[in-house]
UniProtKB/TrEMBL annotation:
Monomer. InterPro entries: PLipase_C/P1_nuclease_dom_sf, S1/P1nuclease. Pfam families: S1-P1_nuclease (PF02265). Keywords: Disulfide bond, Endonuclease, Glycoprotein, Hydrolase, Metal-binding, Nuclease, Signal. This is Aspergillus nuclease S1. Its EC number is 3.1.30.1. The keyword Nuclease applies. GO terms for molecular function: metal ion binding; nucleic acid binding; RNA endonuclease activity; single-stranded DNA endodeoxyribonuclease activity. It comes from Lupinus angustifolius. Residues 1-27 form the signal peptide.
Amino acid sequence: MGEWHNLMWNVILLILLLLIPVPAVLSWGKEGHYATCKITQEYLSEDALFAVKQLLPDSAEGDLAAVCAWADEVRHNYHFRWSSALHYIDTPDFKCNYEYCRDCHDSYGHKHRCVTGAIYNYTMQLKSAYANSASVLSYNLTEALMFLSHFVGDVHQPLHVGFTGDLGGNSITVRWYRRKTNLHHVWDDMIIDSALKTFYDSDLSIMIQAIKRNITETWSNDVPVWEHCAHNYTVCPDGYASESISLACKFAYKNATPGSTLKDEYFLSRLPVVEKRLAQGGVRLAAILNRIFTSKAPIAQSSI
Ligand SMILES: *[C@@H]1O[C@H](CO)[C@@H](O)[C@H](O)[C@H]1NC(C)=O
Ligand SMILES: *[C@@H]1O[C@H](CO)[C@@H](O)[C@H](O)[C@H]1NC(C)=O
Ligand SMILES: *[C@@H]1O[C@H](CO)[C@@H](O)[C@H](O)[C@H]1NC(C)=O
Ligand SMILES: *[C@@H]1O[C@H](CO)[C@@H](O)[C@H](O)[C@H]1NC(C)=O
Ligand SMILES: [Zn+2]
């Protein structure tokens, strides 16, 4: 009797646990990824644009930005659960720095399973497919493009390279004005949402235009530096991750202790950081795709 009761309780408990929604550990929200990839499209070379359009699923209708949040949409699906650890990097608490060998692993300690490892992985897949058509037909290059475009966005969200102990701000409960949320979500979505309402007439395309204008005016001298990788490498995500954890310490975690209420002062001082990271993510993704799909590689047709 007692044992049967225990069993019943365990079953009930299990059912209840299954019903509790898994807290969504997302990345730049939909808007952030959309903005990043809209900026990217502006800077693609003709060759890269051609290759990208061939790889995009029909549903995207030729618009890269339409699939840049795809990796978040599927990460909780059974088939893609393995990709969940590829959206972020956990770094040692309060160290404020990042090292690939030390930090790029999942919670089981499997090496390379983090956002920078994934960026290397999908860049390599696309590049090798375009460099020699014969090999690597085993990769799904449409998925590689969608993952790469998403993860380059993610690695620019400062709290995607955050402390292990607070799960990149996910376990830091704060109020955003009157709303209860967590610090990670503030950086994924809330700052952008509030900016849209306050400054951009709730129109994402106006915000994207404003960022683009800064890229061609205010930041025009910085753009070549953003695009550059040492040794002419195709991609250099370790630098982007180091910037992120540094910004996380300087801006995201600062004055955002558990239980605090974040309002105008935090919002207005952090928004420029967010807008610049969207710009850098967009410009860099374009530079990476341009390097992957450089002309002269005659393979485009045969490998698709
Ligand atoms: C690399 O890509 C393949 C194909 O999507 C995937 O199975 C593997 O988990 C990826 N590894 C990393 C570290 O991104
Ligand atoms: C490649 O991946 C996409 C997205 O998951 C999928 O819709 C498509 O069927 C895949 N293509 C192949 C040839 O498996
Ligand atoms: C444009 O750049 C200025 C100067 O750095 C900054 O204050 C402003 O927030 C930026 N606006 C956008 C939309 O990026
Ligand atoms: C990078 O590429 C440029 C142009 O192809 C070349 O002039 C330069 O020497 C290269 N730099 C390095 C460090 O390989
Ligand atoms: Zn993500």
